[in-house]
Amino acid sequence: MYGRDPKLVVFGLVPALISGALYLGAFVTLILFIGDIAELATWFADDWSSGARTTARVIAGVVILGLSALLGALSFTAVTLLIGDPFYETISERIEERLGGVPDAVDMPWWRSLRRSLVDSGRLLLVSLGIGIPLFFAGFIPLLGQTVVPALAATVGGWLLAVELVGAPFARRGLRLRDRRAALRAHRPMALGFGVGVFLCFLVPLGAVLVMPAAVAGGTLLARRVLGLPIEE
């Protein structure tokens, strides 16, 4: 894809750059005001001794920053896909056109498509938070937090990414979130292989920005594979 149509790839980088700038700005702002936020969060420590109060606020600040980073990582894909819906839709459509197109594509008004995308992404985000936050705190458990928990996080994160990234081709066929889950469950090893690979790429600094167009193309190919459609020209 990168070799054949580099302009399309550059086109696909725009939404990730926009959301990346928004997330970076929000995180830098959080860092600048983390002292005040930690103080508000530890109001109960106002009457403690200076050392105990400082320790409590440092711990609170670290926890707040860690949770914010986790929430950012879990929500980045969903937010980027929402911002870049027309961009990624174009990439996905180009891939499908090369492979024979979608004869029975559902022609849905953009506002209805956006509403469905918001609902499905919101549901996925809630699941991500419900799983990701306990995993974050489990990461503080000695030994398990440095071995088992990262592997579980990559597996869960990879699965959620796979479900998210096949959204456009499934929606093009009038299929919803439950259909995505059912189709991917029937091909779980393939879905995890793709999703975990993307998840690990996203952990690299700027990885999410650079890999997202290829991830969307890969999600289109994965969707066609699990739906029993050809993936070669």
Task: Please describe what this structure looks like.
- The protein starts with 5 loop residues before the first helix and ends in a 7-residue tail after the last helix.
- The chain is 78% helix and 0% strand.
- The protein is an all-alpha fold and 233 residues long.
Short recap of the structure:
The protein is mostly helical and 233 residues long. The protein is built from ten helices and no strands. Helix 2 crosses helix 3 (50-83) and helix 4 (85-98) crosses helix 10.
Topology:
Blueprint: H1 6-32, H2 34-41, H3 50-83, H4 85-98, H5 110-138, H6 148-165, H7 167-172, H8 177-185, H9 188-203, H10 207-226
Helix pairs in contact: 1-3, 1-10, 2-3, 3-5, 3-6, 4-10, 5-6, 6-9, 9-10
What tags apply to this protein structure?
233 residues, mainly alpha, elongated
Per DSSP E runs of 2 or more residues, the count of β-strands stands at: 0
> What's the Cα radius of gyration?
20 Å
Per the principal axes of the C-alpha atoms, what is the gross shape? elongated
What number is the mean pLDDT? Answer: 83
Give the termini separation.
13 Å
Estimate the helix proportion, in percent.
over 70%
The ordered string of helix (H) and strand (E) elements is HHHHHHHHHH
Given the structure, what is the number of helices? 10
Query: How much of the polypeptide forms β-strand, as a percent range?
Result: under 5%
Characterize the biggest β-sheet.
Answer: none
By secondary-structure content and strand pairing, the structural class works out as: mainly alpha
Q: Residue ranges: pLDDT <50 for 5 or more in a row? A: none
